[in-house]
Amino acid sequence: MILKPTPFHPRTSVLCESHAWRRWSGYLAASSYELSHEREYHSIRNAAALFDITPLYKYRVQGRDAARLLDRVVTRNVARTKVGDVLYTPWCDHRGKVLDDGTVARLGEQLFRLTSADPNLRWLEDCAHGLDVDIDDVSEQVAALALQGPTARAILMQLTDGGLEGLKFFRLTATSIRGMPVEISRTGYTGDLGFEIWMQAEHALAIWDALIEVGANYGMAPAGMFALDVARIEAGLMLIDVDYVSARKALIESQLSSPFELDLAWTVNTDKPSFVGKEALVAEQARGPAWQFVGVVVDWDSFERLYLAVGLAPRVPIPAWRMSVPIFSGGEQAGYATSGGWSPLLKKYIALAHLQSKWAAPGTSLEMELTVEHRRKRAIVTVVKKPFFNPARKRT
Amino acid sequence: MAAPYEAIVIGGGHNGLVCAAYLARAGKRVLVLEQRDRIGGAAVSEQLFPGFTFSVFSYVVSLLRPEIIRDLELPRHGLHVLPLESTLTPLPNGDYLAQWNDHDQNRRELARHSLRDAEAYDEFGRLMHLMSRAIKPILGMPPPDPASLLPRDLMGMGRLGKYFRDLGAERFHALHKLLTMSSADYLDEWFETEALKATKSASGIIGALLGPRSPGSAYVLLHHYMGELDGVFRAWGFAKGGNGSVSTAIAAAAMSFGATIRTNAPVSQVLIKNGRAVGVVLNDGEELRAPITISGADPRRTFMQFVGAQHLPNELVDGIRRFRFRGTSAKVNLALSEAPNFTCMPGVGAHLRGAISISPSVDYLERAYDDAKYGEFSRRPYMDIILPSMIDPGMAPPGQHVMSIFAQYAPYDLKGGWTDAKRAAFGDTVIDTLSEYAPNLKTSILHRQVITPPDIERMIGLTEGNIFQGELSLQQMFFLRPIPAWARYATPIEGLYQCGAGTHPGGGVMGASGRNAALTILGKMK
Hints:
The complex is a heterodimer.
Chain A: H1 9-15, E1 20-24, E2 27-32, H2 38-46, E3 48-52, E4 57-62, H3 66-73, E5 86-92, E6 98-108, E7 111-116, H4 121-127, E8 134-137, E9 142-148, H5 152-159, E10 172-177, E11 180-185, E12 194-200, H6 204-215, E13 220-222, H7 225-234, H8 278-287, E14 291-298, H9 300-308, E15 321-329, E16 332-343, E17 348-356, E18 365-372, E19 375-384
Parallel strand pairs in A: 3-13
Antiparallel strand pairs in A: 1-2, 3-9, 4-7, 4-8, 5-6, 6-7, 9-12, 10-11, 11-12, 14-17, 14-19, 15-16, 15-18, 16-17, 18-19
Helix pairs in contact in A: 2-7, 5-6
Chain B: E1 7-10, H1 14-25, E2 30-33, E3 45-49, E4 52-55, H2 66-71, E5 81-83, E6 86-90, E7 96-100, H3 103-113, H4 115-139, H5 151-167, H6 169-180, H7 183-188, H8 194-202, H9 217-229, E8 237-239, H10 244-256, E9 260-262, E10 267-273, E11 276-282, E12 287-289, E13 292-295, H11 299-307, H12 314-322, E14 329-336, E15 355-358, H13 362-373, E16 382-386, H14 388-391, E17 401-408, H15 420-435, E18 445-451, H16 453-460, E19 496-498, H17 512-525
Parallel strand pairs in B: 1-2, 1-13, 2-9, 6-15, 13-19
Antiparallel strand pairs in B: 3-4, 5-8, 6-7, 10-11, 11-12, 14-17, 14-18, 15-16, 16-17
Helix pairs in contact in B: 1-10, 1-17, 3-4, 4-9, 6-9, 8-13
């Protein structure tokens, strides 16, 4: 096969009744297993959904200077983490523009795992000059699953020999599933109670089978990228190549984004002695970002009116969309939305948007472009704070 | 009595035809004179063996300017460029390196050789994209001379200066490196896989007596990326029917605008009266007159043969004498009874629909150059191979194939001179080398044509067989092509212009010289 099957492919390919596959980092990834992604989405919020997230890039960073290297690369403070901590963090180029975002898990005093959306081996190696550290691309050796949703913990507690009960948000534990070693982190891309399970590729099928077997009693369903996309928009989580362009790929200045412009000010630790992009970020922090990444909610009445005007009932985007949609303030373009869709849970049409700072304050009323019966229209949208959905169970 | 023609174009190669088409499109009465029995110059398709059609000389479309495709409506006149989407580099150890058009497929293959290179590839591609965008506007303009104080040059330099300032530091620095480094050194900064560096650096040595380690060869890399830049036009690929289709499409466009094309009409000299070109004389003595004469031939033929040194200022004669041709590229065209079976990737597949490059390492290419440097042909030549019949089934009978092998180095000035025996020996060397990778090749050859630089010179009149009408090396580019004072298509002879690849921006079936020349002439005719 020209596209790589993940280690779970023998199982996922049988389950994928829709035959709707897409690419993810050169791997085959199911868009949905069933004909529609709706039940898969509701599994995330109602029971549990099982995602194959093996296509993430994974790097093992080990050695005396492992923490020092990661602190040189990412914007958050790695030195301060304890074994078992996981950090979500972006990293930047020397101009303070975001290259990628991912997680750093501290597996040992001198051992970390970095996950990323794009390949980063060369960047890590180039930043490691003069440091005593080994960097290995373990993307293919390590398989990964995400189990997300309210019953996720109960399922995993049936299968593991401890460590899950008290596992806090963004903490990781080493345990085993039916005797096979795994690391489980309380992390995910859905904004819900959820876990990610990291395992050696050779154990992938046995662990999948165990989860399917036990999960059946807890309403668990395997879920694809369509369902995940809806959940991650509700959670206000951005996606590379969709919501922002990596500084590695940007062809023009205006395609670049700083962490501040992506609502990631909280990840920028300017107290650290030095890291790539620090000078630019300190300067930007002082003057404030030109753009902000926010949520917008479509005003239902204005939306409905556009359809009523042509004699139709309103039609909401059930699969989320990924494209650039202009947002206006009267005659001026205030910014653009990059992901959006109907939230089946919130019963709202929501979107993630980049707005120039002067229009980005919560409560600001703007207009978003829509196409209704082949004609360009504008619906009223209101700026809101992300995330749109943030259940207490995510952290408790 | 008014002359029947307002302009005569010498040479029915693609640049001459492009120039004629633009002039005719502007309403001028144009005559094109081609010495051979067919138009096209180095872009011709011929049936050398019954049932097998060959792109005898140039064999891919890479740089044909999109504005020419648009302006002359070439698709309407029969041009169909088919994609050529991969490059396979077979390796002596039985492995291979493939470069695919699909990003994921390409990344996966590169990662097999080096994870770092797989990542560097995208960043390198991005920089080259930015750099070719930076260079592209320069191709479409007559080059300003930085040493000149003429208003047009000062304005041109002013535009260029602003342009370079606007490039920004990253791109300006990269451009400087590309202009000064060797392609091998430049690629060393990016990649570690030998076959990748070698295959990429090969585009820096094509048509030149330069090795991948010769300074200045890096710039030519850019030309390779420029074709990809206008990807929506599919300007990079294989012309259905062979490269002759490029010429016939341009000729059809020219004729649709009213141009006249005469074949079997070799020009012996440009007719000069009172220091002015007034027409041409054909080999058989026929005189044809027009107020404007445009030569699509290379600078040496144009000035030394058609005009004659006695009509020219000394510095031009000196400049032309110094202008380097030194053809180094040969062509081996084969009719095959079956597809080649490469040991590294057996069977018939997508890899045979792309290019196949014999460039396993930079050392391999540099050694091939070493032979040529001392007057020998390469004992282990660099080759760029395509199988046109895998892309366009009309090129050969069903199940059989044509193979186009571009081979380098075969220096024009071979020690002891080229003879039939030496030509045959070079052909054998090419086939022996390729047979190491595709063992069934030798037994499947039905017909073989070997074309050396002297053959190119004899057949289509390119001086010393240089495929670009003069090396595309930095000292012969931009305002230096062909010589500083006469780099804007005009000549010291009033009424005589140049439109061949020997002028800026140079060869590669771009057509830009022909178009720029036509636009310059039309500007003066107003």
